[in-house]
Specification:
- The protein is of the alpha/beta class.
- It has a single domain, classed as Alpha/Beta hydrolase fold, catalytic domain (Rossmann fold, 3-Layer(aba) Sandwich), CATH 3.40.50.1820.
- The protein is built from nine helices and eight strands.
- It has an eight-stranded mixed beta sheet with strand order 1-2-4-3-5-6-7-8, with helices on both faces.
- α3 crosses α9 and α4 packs across α5.
- The longest helix has 18 residues.
- The radius of gyration is 18 Å and the shape is globular.
- The two termini are 32 Å apart.
Length: 310
């Protein structure tokens, strides 16, 4: 369908507010996304928010724990923010984590993994896996249920979600009940149809994806599934998934290809392409009904996996 008129207004506003992420330095890009996140204002209230640090492979990892109203133990979503492995933080995805905690009725543990280019592949992936292991081993201490742990994230965070699910299967745990993949990066930048059709003009560009990718893992073996999960040889034994893609997104086709590979391996998958919207739309619930629908879909998938579906 045509680009949603509200989305066109968003693109025009963003273009006037900030330069493209790849137009300047890494520090410029990080400042731009922080400024963008600040325009969203305060997120939904939750019962409790706690910042703490958990052990990682190269020092401690900051996390932020969101607890909804209700009685523990809660199921847990370990969340990995997007931003091309280069930008983004606990702050930029605070609103999304609050929404998911309330909508899915779960504790959300948001992970502030190390960023590239200071910390290149596999730093982000190993941090996210370490944080997920910590959650599984210490769930009771944060009001969580160790038998009901999911992982999720958007964009590069969707990539890290898929990677952590592979790592957990390959390394003997922890057992995960679900993976939430919101317009995930699943492969190196390519010449597929969505990269070509949506290369420019829709907020995230193909050139920016090359910029992010080169900062994170340029020169790494292209067949390594822990940065390109679509290259995995075996998709069996992975947790059920919700995969959300956007029509006008360079990453659309690789997200849908990953959903197909999961389905072909016998994994239960709910994959939806949202029409008329762009990369990043999931966080635009104040403006877009498609975003509200996508968050509701994500919450349904989590509640089904957690056994708390209404």
């Amino acid at each position: 369908m045509p680009l949603d008129p509200q989305v066109r207004m968003v693109i025009d506003t963003l273009s006037a507010m900030m330069p493209p992420f790849d137009a300047g330095s890494v520090e410029d890009a990080r400042a731009a996304i922080v400024a963008l996140a600040a325009t969203a204002g305060l997120g939904e209230p939750v019962a409790n928010v706690e910042n703490r640090k958990v052990p990682g492979p190269d020092g401690s990892i900051p996390v932020r724990i969101y607890t909804p109203e209700g009685r523990a133990p809660f199921p847990v979503l370990v969340f990995f923010h997007g931003g091309g492995w280069v930008i983004g933080s606990l702050e930029t995805h605070d609103g999304t984590c609050r929404q998911l905690a309330n909508a899915a009725g779960c504790v959300v543990v948001s992970v502030d993994y190390r960023l590239a280019p200071e910390h290149r592949y596999p730093a982000a992936a190993e941090d996210c896996y370490a944080a997920t292991r910590w959650v599984a081993e210490n769930a009771a201490a944060i009001g969580g249920d160790p038998q009901r742990i999911a992982v999720g994230g958007d964009s590069a965070g969707g990539n890290l979600t898929a990677v952590v699910a592979l790592m957990a299967r390959d390394r003997g745990g922890p057992r995960l009940v679900h993976q939430l993949l919101v317009y995930p990066v699943t492969d190196a930048p390519s010449a597929n149809a969505s990269y070509t059709e949506n290369a420019e003009g829709y907020f995230l560009t193909a050139a920016q994806m090359h910029w992010f990718w080169n900062h994170y893992c340029a020169g790494v073996d292209a067949s390594d599934p822990y940065h390109s999960p679509l290259r995995a040889r075996d998709f069996r034994g992975l947790p059920p998934a919700v995969v959300i893609t956007a029509e006008y997104d360079p990453l659309r086709d690789e997200g849908e290809a990953y959903a197909r590979r999961l389905r072909e391996a016998g994994v239960s998958v709910d994959c939806t392409r949202y029409p008329g919207v762009i990369h990043g739309f999931f966080a635009m619930g104040a403006l877009l009904p498609q975003a509200r629908d996508a968050v509701a879909q994500a919450a349904r998938g989590l509640r089904t996996a957690f056994g708390t579906a209404k």
